[in-house]
Design a protein that fits this description.
The chain is mainly α. Helices cover 82% and strands 0% of the residues.
Length: 145
Amino acid sequence: MTDRRAATRLYLAVGCGAAIGSLARFLSGYLIVSLLGLDALWSTAFVNVVGSWIITAFATLTGPDGRMMVGPAARNFVMAGFCGGLTTFSAMSLDTFILLFEGDLPLAATYLISVVALSLAAAWLGYLTASRLNRLPVDSDQANR
């Protein structure tokens, strides 16, 4: 494959992943706000925590010691594209700023600390989950496919 084709494939993978991640973010916001009746603030928190788990688990599974061999396009589809489209650090920053601007310092601090702590905890759990999966024996029939 030429360098130009590889670059095009990589760009398309990131773009498609971002589109799917953005749609997932929108739908999760709809679910949390409309169906569950929670504040939109928590849909932002949800996607950041879930995205932290996904990106860390995938990075661990597809890293040098991981059990999944994927190419650069697949890795960037998930990590840069999907997780980039799904997570919303800028939206979380805006939510926190609005709370501060409205004078709700306790809620702003609680929200910010909670989302960061939960995101780090989710990243840690993603690492643990993927590390365990990496240690499972590989089915030789499946590995030869």
